[in-house]
Amino acid sequence: MNPLLDKLHPYPFERLRALTQDIKPNPAYRAISLGIGEPKHPAPQLVEDALVGSLKTLAAYPATAGEPKLREAIVGWLERRYGLRLDAASQVLPVNGSREALFALAQTVIDPSQPGATVVCPNPFYQIYEGAALLAGAQTAFANSDPARNFAADWSQIDEATWSRTQLLYCCSPGNPTGAVMPLGEWETLFALSDQHGFVIASDECYSEIYFREEPPLSGLEAAAKLGRHDFRNLIAFTSLSKRSNVPGMRSGFVAGDAALIKKFLLYRTYHGSAMNPMVQAASIAAWNDEAHVIANREQYRAKFAQVTPVLAAELDVALPDASFYLWAAVPGGDDIAFAQQLLAQYNVTVLPGSLLAREAHGVNPGAGRIRLALVAEKAECLEAARRIAEFTRSFKQSLL
What we know:
Layout: H1 12-20, E1 32-33, H2 45-52, H3 68-82, E2 92-95, H4 98-109, E3 118-123, H5 128-135, E4 139-146, E5 152-153, H6 160-165, E6 166-172, H7 184-197, E7 200-204, H8 220-226, E8 235-240, H9 241-245, E9 253-257, H10 259-272, H11 278-288, H12 292-313, E10 326-330, H13 336-347, E11 349-350, E12 352-353, E13 370-374, H14 379-400
Parallel strand pairs: 1-11, 3-4, 3-6, 6-7, 7-8
Antiparallel strand pairs: 2-9, 4-5, 8-9, 10-13, 12-13
Helix pairs in contact: 2-11, 3-11, 4-5, 4-10, 12-14, 13-14
Keywords: Aminotransferase, Transferase
InterPro entries: Aminotransferase_I/II_large (IPR004839), DapC_beta/gammaproteobac (IPR019878), LL-DAP_aminotransferase (IPR050881), PyrdxlP-dep_Trfase (IPR015424), PyrdxlP-dep_Trfase_major (IPR015421), PyrdxlP-dep_Trfase_small (IPR015422)
Protein name: Succinyldiaminopimelate transaminase
């Protein structure tokens, strides 16, 4: 067996199940889960129609590089969304959801023969980053989020010696779990570090289309273009239809950026057997070419967050994020696990303790004392959950006196 498998940590949801397996929730309340970030809004009819209408495409093997029409649809969306014009043949590649691609990129770019090969991650973080690094034979280093700066990752925590060993950096904007969006100045800092030390930047942008400010979130590709980096050197952006179009079961997204990296990534994927299903390609073309369903989806989230956030903010330290579909709330007393366990027991609401989404780094676990609330269900269910959480929090505060 691959000994590197023993380095993997249990997934946050596995740890949560272990922490709650002996809890019997109050039967007076029906179960509501805000724990998993799985979109619950209906999938667009145009995507379903495209899937059904492409059944006869199953008789042929798909190309790993995807159909030209799909790549053209992707570059068309990038131009409309960010004002960019990429080459469909060399700078974009369809992938089976951002998750598998985020993992696979590390296997492509990491050279484990180099002493101390390192992957830098934000903290808290999407656990795929860590698993990808460890199974590629690298070690991890973490930049903690800073609540005083809207939970931006504090990249200055990474010292010069660590940067010199870094081969890959994962960043996530809008962030999971904080919803923070990276500004242009932060991108400029990361690009300068990449130029100095030669590492690749993997920009996870799967929440880019769910936002609450007037200005849409900045893409890493867009930031590079604004800074004159039109070759996107050492930059790969990851985007998914899962959240944008409510089709997580379809497993469809793309990577885009540095043509030299895309070429090597395509080579890896050819051997990895990761060509996209032809039906999924047809449905993806329909999704990328339509923006009306995305606008409607975003408005549903905006209306939901506008009603739910004040209910929770009356009792918890929580505020509307820049983007994404999570609320990142501080809990009274600072024990996020005890809060989540007692909330489940008394009110049958599941939330994810923030400490399970982070690692201890620089002397602290930056997720400790917070909970992640995924507002993915319909508005009425999210509001009911918020009212229960607020009621529970009032009593929880009393128990701490």
